[in-house]
Design a protein that fits this description.
CATH topology: Rossmann fold
Number of domains: 1
Number of strands: 10
Structural class: alpha/beta
Strand order of the largest sheet: 6-7-8-3-9-10
Largest sheet: 6 strands, mixed
CATH class: Alpha Beta
Order of helices and strands: EEEHEEHEHHHEHEHEE
Amino acid sequence: MIELQHISKWVTVGGVRTFLLKDINLHIGEGEFISVMGPSGSGKSTLLHVLGMLDEPSEGEYIFLNQAVQTLKEKQRAQLYKQHIGFVFQAYHLIDELTVYENIETPLIYQNIKSSERQAIVADALDRFHMVGKKDLFPTQLSGGQQQLVGIARALVAKPKLLLADEPTGNLNSKQGEEIMGVFRELNSQDGVTIVQVTHSEKNAAYGSRIINLLDGRIESVS
């Protein structure tokens, strides 16, 4: 599904090049559950943003579903992202002015899915995440755990092949965190969604089939 070949990412400040990622080579097969670990500043979030096409590598090749991402025009890349990738952020990134229902519905509007179909899909998502009673509330009226569930429902509503999660339980208590990880495990084992999560938690990392440890922008080990 994913092939990263000699991927590097750097920023240049005052003529000095600082590497955020350095010579990353990685293969991720369809249906895998990968956990990415490493200290702060090791390049975890940068790697996730490159995978999610939110950031471009400075050099190297990224192949996603047999397509070389760098050769695609911006519109084609956006289409690939919308169609196949869901992103769950630590800070939720819900739209405060929209209700729970409307937040979950947003990706479907971008995909030009007709209204009646959208209603059925969102109803299923609300049911799956036990949020039916919260559908008319706004994000500020929800707990952190509920906001994260809405974020996950929104990321999954368009049935992505790849789910990227950046510290998805970072703002949650341990019980909420376990619930979220249980949802991820189910998505991976039952729905076959490929998952790449960045986490500081060894307990959460253990849900993955492989753990990739980053250090100073390089892959230090794979276990």
